[in-house]
Amino acid sequence: MDWQSMLFQFFGGLGIFLFGLKYMGDGLQRSAGDNLRNILNKFTSTPFRAVLAGILVTVLIQSSSGTTVLAVGLVSAGFMNLEQAIGIIMGANIGTTITAFIIGFHVGAYALPIMAIGAILLFFTKNPFLNSIGQIIFGFGSLFYGLDLMGTGMEPLEQLSQFRSLMTNLSDHPFYGVLTGTGLTLVIQSSSATVGILQELYSQNSISLQAALPILFGNNIGTTITAVLAAIGASLPAKRAAASHVVFNLTGTAFILLILAPFTVVLTNLSATLNLNPAMQLAFAHGMFNVLNVVIQMWFIRQLAVLVTKIVPGEERIVKYDATHLDYTIIQTSPSVALNQAKLEVEQMGSFVTDEYHATYKYYLDHNDLYKQDMLQLEEIVDTIDYKLTEYLTFISREELPFHASNDHAIMIDITKYLERIGDHCENIVKNIEDATKAAKRDLRANKELQDVKTILMDEDLVKLFSMVEQNIQEAIDSYIQDDHVLAEQVIQREEEVNEQEQMIRENYIQRLNSGIGLPSEGILFIDIVSNLERISDHAVKIAKHTLGTRYPYQKLSRRLIRKTEQAHAGVALNASTPEK
């Protein structure tokens, strides 16, 4: 037996298979657009709809782990609750069976021509959509080419007495088969690849159905490792979502082992009725198992959520985002009312940005990771509002608006961007603090006399700057929402103090570095934080100037025109209401 050739073909085929699977998934995702998160976010109002959303997204990206990660991100950001995420995870388990059905058709003989067609679309067309289609086709062909190579590599196993003995042992002890499937998926990190290998072995009669089924079921447990790894060090909701994935798959596998004999009988009869080939027979087994698992457990989603809450205890730090302000149905009929709704969304965005800055400030003061998680969660919400609000305002711009409403519309677009950039600067500051903390920990290991990591970057003048900038953000947003010119003037006046404070901090810190106090690497991060704070304050000033109507030169003229228009309308109304003598 040529072990080298066998191993080369198997692992080379596995690599091509995994590449094809990912490449095909990427192409499907590109052709579907960037709306996958929106699908998960919008279509999860009931457990059944959440399951359907999970199936659809998994089919599009060809990765149940990818769908689970998306769901975890949405839970962490407060866009959905744990019960909705569990529904999506259940749907992902059904969606991942599609790959097994694709493999079941076994068009390996045409793998190379399929890859050639994909390559032509990829390299000889400039249309982005055709490129995505080419990517899907090329990945599809690579998937089958990799399977054929793996199959060729595994053919000699049938002649190996030790392998036959192992398969017999797995047939007699289903529990060992589950452990084998779990371990294989843990190593390969792809449930689809495990199923593909199993289908090849079963097609070559190298493994019996009684041995293949437990391995197939164990594969579902192994695929949970991706979610578990992603949840390490993540937020509490992320850990609970990962735990629900594990509990759901463990429960389903345990149940199916109890009814393994009748399940096998039903599968055998179905295969005979439909005249299924061996690969398709396992695809049906995989599909039946996951559908049965979901149909039974989806009625207990609430109980599952309670269970994982007890398994992973702790206080949830989830910010709820109310997405009901933007009503698209009134844009055409009442664009001015829609504009008022947009302003409510700007107000909500401003509140989230203020909270995000405060979390950043608290993280600077005591380096508590909970504040970092709060900031990251709020930043995701702010980015989402920015996207939705910009889209909403774009739709409004297509309608006819009064002159003063057009002016308000332009201001809202600007302020939305300023708020989003403040959030970005908060993220930069947290990254700087993290980098400084890591550097301080390395220095502490090398030199025990260095300062403690909690005091890194700590500076009284910088604390004062943080406080001044926080006040500017709050008053700038309030001045716009309340149309308060006094607050706006205070922001602009305080900006001079902010600039003076920034300059003083820079000079003092450089002097300390020149005196041998502190490290140059730490100094760069310190100055970066100061720069980000100064830019945040600049954006707050721009918001205040919009309140005063002095952000752009044309705004002064616009205000005069609006005033004259309002006075003219008031005069017409007065004349109309005065009775004739």
Describe the structure.
The model has no long low-confidence stretch (mean pLDDT 79). 81% of the residues lie in helices and 0% in strands. The protein has helices at residues 3-32, 36-42, 47-61, 64-76, 82-95, 97-105, 111-123, 128-154, 161-172, 174-188, 191-203, 209-222, 225-231, 236-258, 260-274, 278-297, 301-311, 335-366, 369-397, 403-446, 460-482, 485-514, 520-548, 553-577. It is elongated, with a radius of gyration of 30 Å. It has 581 residues and is mainly alpha-helical. The longest helix is centred in the last third of the chain and has 44 residues, at 403-446.
Element-level helix/strand string: HHHHHHHHHHHHHHHHHHHHHHHH
Radius of gyration: 30 Å
Number of helices: 24
Number of β-strand runs:
0
Rounded mean pLDDT is 79
**Main beta-sheet strand count, sense and barrel state:** none
Global outline: elongated
Helix/strand-derived category reads mainly alpha
Contiguous low-pLDDT stretches (5 residues minimum) are none
Helix content: over 70%
Strand content: under 5%
Amino- and carboxy-terminal Cα gap? 116 Å
Question: Tags for this entry?
Answer:
single chain, 581 residues, mainly alpha, 24 helices, 0% strand
Could you outline the blueprint of secondary structure elements for this entry?
Elements: H1 3-32, H2 36-42, H3 47-61, H4 64-76, H5 82-95, H6 97-105, H7 111-123, H8 128-154, H9 161-172, H10 174-188, H11 191-203, H12 209-222, H13 225-231, H14 236-258, H15 260-274, H16 278-297, H17 301-311, H18 335-366, H19 369-397, H20 403-446, H21 460-482, H22 485-514, H23 520-548, H24 553-577
